[in-house]
């Protein structure tokens, strides 16, 4: 079970970080066009938009983080955050779920049903 998911919070954070760098690079390119003022202003403006966007995304991550559940990854033993029912470890990409019985499985609605678990238990008792 490798790399079907990657951690949602990490993913968003990577996008935000990429935007900061993109914004800086765009602004830097703008500086190269000093002799064409409107080009420089345009690049500066685009760079600023990218940086403002990343700030908004960082803010959004902060909100998501408060909703995420902190768990210790069974694979690497590090504390990570699970967003939603199924997510991946921030460090080793191990798929994680808030239900320990679902480890290594894709999320499926049937796991919410008590009946399903009773049947599973019966099966394992018979084996
Ligand atoms: Zn891990």
From the spread of the alpha carbons, the general shape counts as rod-shaped
Strand content: 5-15%
Alpha carbon gyration radius? 22 Å
Helix content: 40-55%
| Hetero ligands | zinc ion
Keywords: Cell membrane, Membrane, Transmembrane, Transmembrane helix
Subcellular location: Cell membrane
Membrane topology: Multi-pass membrane protein
Family: Belongs to the UPF0295 family.
Descriptive account of the structure:
It is found in: Cell membrane. Keywords: Cell membrane, Membrane, Transmembrane, Transmembrane helix. Its main location: membrane. The chain is mostly helical and about 130 residues long. It has one domain. It contains 3 helices and 4 strands. The chain has helices spanning about 10-30, 35-65, 115-125; strands at about 70, 80, 85-90, 95. The strands form 2 sheets. A two-stranded antiparallel ribbon has the order 1-2. A two-stranded antiparallel sheet has the order 3-4. A hairpin with a 6-residue loop joins strand 3 (about 85-90) and strand 4 (about 95). The protein is rod-shaped, with a radius of gyration of 22 Å. Bound molecules: zinc ion.
């Amino acid at each position: 079970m490798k790399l079907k998911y990657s951690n949602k919070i990490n993913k968003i954070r990577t996008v935000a970080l990429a935007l900061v760098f993109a914004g800086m690079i765009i602004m830097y390119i703008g500086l190269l066009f000093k002799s064409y003022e409107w080009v420089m202003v345009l690049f500066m403006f685009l760079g600023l938009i990218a940086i403002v966007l990343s700030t908004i995304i960082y803010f959004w991550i902060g909100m998501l983080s408060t909703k995420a559940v902190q768990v210790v990854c069974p694979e690497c033993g590090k504390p990570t955050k699970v967003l939603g029912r199924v997510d991946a470890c921030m460090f080793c990409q191990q798929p994680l779920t808030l239900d320990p019985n679902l480890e290594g499985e894709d999320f499926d609605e049937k796991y919410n049903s008590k009946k399903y678990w009773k049947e599973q238990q019966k099966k394992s008792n018979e084996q």
